[in-house]
Amino acid sequence: MMLLLLAAPLGAVEKLRVLALFPGKAMLSIDGHNRMLQQGAVSPEGVMLISADPDQAVVMVGGHRQTLKLGSSVASRYRKKKRLEARVLMNDQGAYAIQGTINGHSLPMVVDTGANTVALSEHHARGLNLQYRRTGRETRVQTASGVARAWSITLNRVKIGEIELRHVPAVVMEGELPAEVLLGMSFLSSLHIRHQGNLMLLSKSQ
């Protein structure tokens, strides 16, 4: 589970300026409001003073860490990081199926949290023009029907919904199975996954 800890509700801070510096505290102007903050305190606008001394203040605002000198200011608008999402519905067979892309080519995929890597068949690999037998590393993988021959490779780009990951470890299985590309944990491990009934929501901070 991903835990997002927010010390205070964050809107968008448009202008932040250092007015005075002291050991362990700083006077800041935040969108025109003067705030005296102790080290570790958070302003009503959501700006945290991480540390301060007579030379500089280190603050956290909108998920960004900034080091500011006396009189310096930050005028850019800070926003919470956008979260990229993919929504996957359970099909009639109880699988979470979605149309995705590998290296820009559209393929049917199934989200499989029980698989430790992305898996595709030789049929998929040929359609993607992957030189897996020449560039891949031959290996053996455990499947529901036993041990199978496969080749370990790295996919340049894998995308579902708004989420695209690069350099994704994968295996090409000998033969024509799996029928759909299995999205295993080599893709899913960096995503936040939650369920709403028959809907699986995948998200990733941009």
UniProtKB/TrEMBL annotation:
InterPro entries: Clan_AA_Asp_peptidase_C, Peptidase_aspartic_dom_sf, Retropepsin-like_bacterial
GO terms assigned for molecular function: peptidase activity
Single biological process term from Gene Ontology: proteolysis
Domain of life, source organism: Bacteria
Gene3D superfamilies: Acid Proteases
SUPFAM superfamilies: Acid proteases
Keywords annotated in UniProt: Hydrolase, Protease
Keyword Translocase: no
NCBIfam families reported for this sequence: clan_AA_DTGA
Protein name, as recorded: Aspartyl protease family protein
Species this protein is from: Thiolapillus brandeum
Organism lineage: Bacteria, Pseudomonadati, Pseudomonadota, Gammaproteobacteria, Chromatiales
